[in-house]
TrEMBL record:
UniProt keyword list: Metal-binding
One BP annotation, GO: diterpenoid biosynthetic process
Keyword Metal-binding attached: yes
GO molecular function annotations of the record: magnesium ion binding; terpene synthase activity
Domain Terpene synthase metal-binding: 216-459
Cofactor(s) of this protein: Mn(2+); Mg(2+)
UniProt-recorded name of the protein: Terpene synthase
Superkingdom assignment: Eukaryota
Domain Terpene synthase N-terminal: 1-159
Length: 515
């Protein structure tokens, strides 16, 4: 498979080079979009960057030569890659009543779908894109029942999750089946996408084999029966953040670390007393096996396993020459502090009187540990990509990471609200929102929180734009990827991590089914 894939990879590379020197903008954009949706673009980062840089350097008024689909696709790809593109290019597609019109009668649905996806890369204050989302959503909802596959599949997927927000490997699996049905498909690209998917699928299964043996050797289920056993789901989560083959060890490391973070969450949130939580936090801060002697029995065994695993990870990273080893321990210590701060906050009744959602988020954002996912990914990406300054920047909750955390916190709270009502951990941002707005219903609170989620996505899109972007694109992409997985896991008001039955088909398609 690898030999065949290498041949196809080079054939596709020649296509990109030939296309990039040609005059046809539509062909260039379609090729880049296809490679990205099939998730084989990581083989051609420099080539794609060169294509889009040249597209961006052209005058915006060149869009006047193109239809709505091409204009929207140009806007989408440039924004996705951090280039600013003006939303004013869509003004000429509006009629006197403000409706969006399509000059491509044969592919009106495709054009509206492209505009819908492009508009979801809006930033604050872009009213024309706000209007475009409302108009195109209504349009697509009205026509979807009359469409045939594969366009019907495309529209349904977009209405559920706009293209920019979909996890890369989930989208790759979906789009391979869509692209296979297109009469305009390129057989070389399709073959390479299928080969690459199979190669990575095999690698992911090898990683799961390693992780499963590690998990069984820990024997934690014998001592922590209350904790969620989610090895496969956690690995799926982490490959959503870093999917590329060169990060194989990083995925394994991240999965181990966040299995521990998940158990921390179960201990602090559902099982331990306040005093036990304090003892465990202090023991983690000491980072010393002797500290285990002061812990309850179930914590003592777990604590020692954490230290042993962390020592092994630190040894591996040092052998790889990773200069950021110390952050592995420091981030885990920070996670326990965040959990304990929330437990203490709740025990004092502060969560019950938080006057606003913003006030609640000051505590509940850190305890979501959504910052820790991308920052651990920074560590895993190694010296060629990451610096100490970048890791410290991430740990300081810059705007893009805070926004990612808000997406995760709010969607989690909405998904778990019904389940946790009446429990000791039930006072969430939902209750805070209901208090803030004078006792509105929970459904009204959900709607307001979803508005905050949309605003956070705008912040994320804005923070990725050059030249103001604070970090290199690979690090920002890790934050965006982490947010995509949060959106996927908590989609449709479900907590698919706690109740993973809804993930079964997706996981089966990523790890088992051949394409």
């Amino acid at each position: 498979m690898k030999r065949k894939a290498h041949v196809s990879e080079e054939q596709v590379r020649r296509m990109i080079l030939e296309c990039s020197s040609g005059p046809n903008l539509h062909v260039k954009l379609e090729l880049v979009d296809t490679l990205e949706r099939l998730c084989i673009d990581y083989h051609y980062e420099k080539e794609i960057e060169n294509v889009l840089r040249r597209v961006h350097e052209e005058e915006d008024d060149t869009d006047n030569h193109y239809d709505l689909h091409t204009t929207a696709l140009r806007f989408y790809l440039l924004r996705k890659h951090g280039y600013y593109a003006s939303p004013d290019v869509f003004q000429r597609f509006r009629d006197e009543e403000g409706n969006f019109t399509c000059d491509d009668n044969n592919n009106g649905t495709r054009s509206m779908l492209s505009l819908y996806n492009a508009a979801h890369l809006r930033i604050h204050g872009e009213e024309i894109l706000d209007d475009a989302i409302v108009f195109t959503r209504n349009y697509l909802q009205s026509v979807v029942k009359h469409l045939q596959s594969p366009m019907a599949d495309e529209v349904c997927s977009a209405l559920r999750t706009p293209l920019f927000r979909r996890p890369r490997r989930v989208e790759a699996r979906h789009y391979i089946s869509v692209y296979d049905k297109l009469p305009t498909r390129n057989e070389t690209i399709l073959e390479f996408a299928k080969l690459d998917f199979g190669i990575l699928q095999s690698l992911y299964c090898e990683e799961l084999n390693i992780l499963t043996m590690w998990w069984k050797e820990l024997q934690l289920q014998d001592h922590l029966s209350f904790a969620r056993d989610r090895m496969v789901e956690m690995h799926f989560w982490m490959l959503g953040v870093l999917f590329e083959p060169q990060y194989s060890y990083g995925r394994t490391m991240l999965t181990k670390l966040f299995i521990f973070v998940s158990i921390f969450d179960d201990i602090y949130d559902n099982y331990s007393t306040l005093e036990e939580s304090k003892l465990f936090t202090e023991a983690i801060e000491r980072w010393d096996e002797e500290a285990a002697e002061e812990l309850p029995g179930y914590m003592k065994f777990f604590y020692k396993k954490v230290l042993t695993t962390m020592k092994s990870i630190e040894t591996d990273l040092k052998l790889q020459g990773n200069k950021h080893v110390d952050y592995v321990k420091n981030l885990l210590i920070d996670a326990t502090r965040c959990f304990y701060n929330e437990v203490k906050w709740r025990s004092e009744g502060a969560d019950q009187v938080a006057a606003t959602v913003e006030e609640h988020l000051k505590i509940s954002v850190p305890s979501s540990c959504c910052m820790h996912v991308p920052v651990y990914a920074f560590v895993a990406m190694g010296n060629d990509v990451t610096t100490d300054d970048a890791i410290n920047w991430g740990m300081a909750y810059p705007k893009i990471i805070t926004s990612s955390c808000i997406v995760g916190r709010l969607l989690n709270d909405i998904a778990s609200h019904e389940r946790e009502q009446g429990s000791s951990s039930s006072s969430s941002t939902v209750e805070a929102c209901m208090r803030e707005h004078g006792g509105i219903t929970k459904e009204e609170a959900y709607a307001k929180l979803r508005e905050l989620v949309e605003e956070s996505w705008m912040d994320i899109a804005g923070e990725c734009l050059r030249p103001a972007a604070a970090q290199p694109p690979p690090l920002l992409e890790a934050v965006v990827n982490a947010t995509r997985v949060l959106d996927f896991v908590y989609k449709d008001d479900q907590d698919a991590y706690t109740h993973p039955s809804s993930l079964k088909d997706t996981i089966h398609s990523i790890y088992i089914l051949s394409v």
